[in-house]
From TrEMBL:
Protein species of origin: Schistocephalus solidus (Tapeworm)
Keywords: Endoplasmic reticulum, GTP-binding, Hydrolase, Magnesium, Membrane, Nucleotide-binding, Transmembrane, Transmembrane helix
A Pfam family of this chain: GBP
Family, as annotated: Belongs to the TRAFAC class dynamin-like GTPase superfamily. GB1/RHD3 GTPase family.
Protein's UniProt name: GB1/RHD3-type G domain-containing protein
Reactions catalysed according to its record: GTP + H2O = GDP + phosphate + H(+)
Membrane topology: Multi-pass membrane protein
Gene Ontology, cellular component aspect: endoplasmic reticulum membrane
GO function terms (MF aspect): GTP binding; GTPase activity
Subcellular location: Endoplasmic reticulum membrane
GB1/RHD3-type G domain mapped to chain residues: 41-287
Taxonomy, superkingdom: Eukaryota
Residue spans crossing the bilayer: 427-448, 454-472
Length: 518
């Protein structure tokens, strides 16, 4: 099995020094993960595990990492004597994970559509430990659910009413989101993972038994309290996929040995078999869910904006109103749309006057700007956004301001190109003209006019080339002709002038040092 690359990085911290248990986003750490050039534009799958503390969330995530690292999907568990590595975990009664951690190396996976996406794994602080307030636990759970595309709700023993009540907050948010005009289901995949399931004679281990249990728990029966009826209806309407899996106890040694280090050989065979089936069922390419918000795929860079927006409203350590979260989502949604439109504009402008393009006439830049601006506006209008048209107006105005500034930058860069290029290509052509002039004069001087005449034609070709280049560069028209001349001049530099100068330099140095060269 290939070695595991990366480490667990804390991206959301809980500041307990103030006594208010405020959340803090480590923006630098998150940016290093999400905004790598090769990753930032890839769509993202976010897998998170949340639930009560000391119930094996980090332990489970490390098996996820092992599966993603393995190159043998049938034997992904690998060496049964190998210790379990990845997110830090340990046995015992005290909390081990604080805030939200993310694995530093996203996994690149090809989906059934042959599209490559980035898969991220998040570990969350456990709920209901002695160091956390009820509000803080709810906040961490909420933040995890809002940011993930696949949330594993880690529950021990049984699926009970209080577990469903923890989802009430999200159902209220979802109800407001759909009421505000969003036609999309606000949350994606919620997986109830029931650990240490003790009733396999009622519901067997695995997904089949889990789904039977989940359907039973979500069933609306005659005489049920209206609050419970409403909760069930909203849970089923707010998540696009609800699933449940029942897992057996991992074994006595896992629970009691202080030296247990995650070896498969020390676990109960029934647990190992269920684990072997469950993890691929959750993480195989066919079952991965790209993160979606308001019907739009989220990229790694987009996720950065949503992290900032959500952590900002959760920073107080208290659970904000669903209306506040809805507004934060709408703000981040509009901002990521703005960024996409800006990037499209830059791509189109770069084709005309980008860093690798030669000097062009100013009116060509203005024309390209008008076209790119129009298409950026169209893209902004086409992408579904939360909050409605009125909410989006400040963002379209901001987009127009930023594109106007980019136009100024492109024009300044274009002017600089014209100034710099004055030195390179004409300098090369002038040097070649001088060489041909000297050679022609030398052969005339020694009476070899026939040979001298051979250099007259290329001499005049260079003169015409130089005049053509000057006309193209100063007018800004027929830039393709100027590019061909620039490329030709660069070839002369690379293959004639530079080697000649280098050879002369070497000979001069050898002569100065008294070293003979053959």
């Amino acid at each position: 099995m290939p070695p595991l690359r990366g480490e667990a990085v804390q991206v959301v911290k809980v500041n307990e020094e103030s006594g208010q248990h405020c959340l803090e986003l480590d923006e630098g750490a998150l940016k290093r993960i999400l905004c790598k050039p090769e990753l930032q534009h890839k769509k993202v799958v976010v897998v998170s595990v949340a639930g009560a503390f000391r119930k094996g969330k980090s332990f489970l995530l490390d098996f996820f990492l092992r599966f993603m690292t393995s190159d043998d999907p049938k034997n992904w568990l690998g060496d049964p004597t190998a210790p379990l590595v990845g997110f830090h975990w340990r046995g015992g009664a005290d909390r081990d994970t604080s805030g939200i951690l993310m694995w530093s190396e996203p996994f690149l996976v090809k989906l059934r559509t042959d599209e490559e996406v980035a898969v991220l794994f998040m570990d969350t602080q456990g709920s209901f430990d002695s160091s956390s307030t009820v509000k803080q636990c709810a906040t961490i759970f909420a933040l995890s659910t809002m940011l993930s595309s696949k949330q594993i709700y880690n529950i021990q023993g049984n699926l009970q009413e209080d577990n469903l009540q923890h989802l009430h907050f999200f159902t209220e948010y979802g109800r407001l989101a759909m009421k505000s005009g969003s036609n999309e289901i606000p949350f994606q995949h919620l997986e109830f993972l029931i650990r240490d399931w003790s009733y396999p004679y009622d519901y067997p281990f695995g997904s089949d038994g889990g789904m039977a249990l989940l359907n039973k728990r979500l069933e609306i029966t005659p005489g049920m309290h209206p609050e419970h009826v409403s909760l069930r209806n909203h849970i089923m309407s707010c998540f696009s996929r609800l699933r449940c899996c029942l897992m057996p106890h991992p074994g006595l040694r896992v629970a009691t040995s202080p030296n247990f280090d995650g070896r498969i050989a020390d676990m109960d065979p029934e647990f190992v078999e269920q684990l072997r089936v469950f993890v691929p069922l959750l993480l195989s390419p066919a079952n991965l869910d790209v993160k979606m918000i308001n019907g739009q795929s989220v990229t790694c860079r987009d996720l950065m904006e949503y992290f900032k927006a959500y952590v900002k409203i959760y920073q107080s350590g208290t659970l904000p109103e669903p209306t506040s979260i809805l507004q934060a989502t709408a703000e981040a949604n509009n901002l990521t749309t703005l960024i996409r439109c800006k990037e499209q504009y830059i791509r189109q402008m770069n084709e005309v006057c980008g860093p690798t393009r030669p000097y062009v006439a100013s009116k060509l830049i203005d024309g390209a700007h008008q076209t790119a601006l129009h298409e950026a506006r169209q893209l902004f209008a086409h992408i579904p956004k939360m909050g409605g048209d009125e909410f989006s107006k400040p963002y379209i105005r901001r987009l127009e301001r930023e594109l106007a500034q980019l136009l100024i930058d492109y024009k300044e860069s274009n002017t600089n190109k014209n100034t710099l290029q004055h030195m390179k290509t004409p300098g090369v052509l002038a040097v070649m003209l001088l060489v041909f002039y000297v050679v022609t004069g030398f052969f005339e001087l020694i009476g070899l006019s026939i040979i001298s005449n051979l250099f007259i034609v290329p001499f005049w070709i260079l003169v015409v080339t130089l005049l053509t280049w000057m006309g193209v560069r100063f007018s800004g028209h027929a830039s393709q002709v100027g590019e061909v001349i620039d490329e030709g001049a660069q070839i002369l530099v690379d293959w004639v002038i530079s080697p000649t100068v280098e050879k002369i330099g070497q000979r001069a140095a050898a002569h100065a040092l008294g070293v003979s060269q053959t």
